[in-house]
Design brief:
Layout lengths: L6 H21 L5 H12 L5 H8 L5 H11 L3 E4 L8 E4 L1 H21 L5 H25 L4
Antiparallel strand pairs: 1-2
Helix pairs in contact: 1-5, 2-3, 2-4, 2-5
């Protein structure tokens, strides 16, 4: 028997609060969390197709279409038509990039408030470890090939 606790159990309250922070920041700008996530991916990888974006976000390829419709209607991204709807290349508009950055700034303000009692060193450690874990998960996903 070990005293080691499960990571999910330790992080659950924190990740739920991070999700609430992200939801609130997106809603403040008339977006849902998924629409913000799509804008973030498209801004980081202009020209990505919708199937790739859905895969990167681990989001339904069918459900992403409604979010893309909304983002396009609002002038936040454009779809450059491909052979079929899944191969449309996605491009952020200037308005989409600006809005995504505003939401991200709101998220960062929420994170800063949430973590205000951590020392600068603890916060730097958290950011470093979170970045390392994110890279490990990305490498793992890329090694396993395309998801369905």
């Amino acid at each position: 028997m070990t005293d080691r606790r499960d990571l999910l159990g330790q992080l659950l309250a924190f990740t739920k609060e991070l999700r609430r922070t992200e939801d609130a920041a997106a809603a403040e700008h008339g977006l849902n969390m998924w629409q913000y996530a799509v804008l973030s991916v498209v801004e980081a990888r202009p020209g990505i197709n919708q199937a790739e974006a859905a895969s990167l976000l681990d989001y339904s390829r069918n459900r992403i279409v409604a979010d893309l419709d909304t983002l396009e209607e609002r002038g936040l991204l454009v779809r450059e038509r491909g052979a079929d709807r899944r191969s449309n290349a996605l491009q952020p508009t200037a308005a989409g990039t600006a809005l995504m950055r505003q939401v991200r700034a709101g998220i960062h303000r929420g994170e800063d408030a949430l973590l205000a009692t951590l020392s600068a060193e603890e916060r730097a450690d958290l950011d470093r470890v979170a970045g390392r874990v994110a890279r490990l998960m990305r490498e793992r996903r890329e090694a396993s090939g395309p998801s369905s």
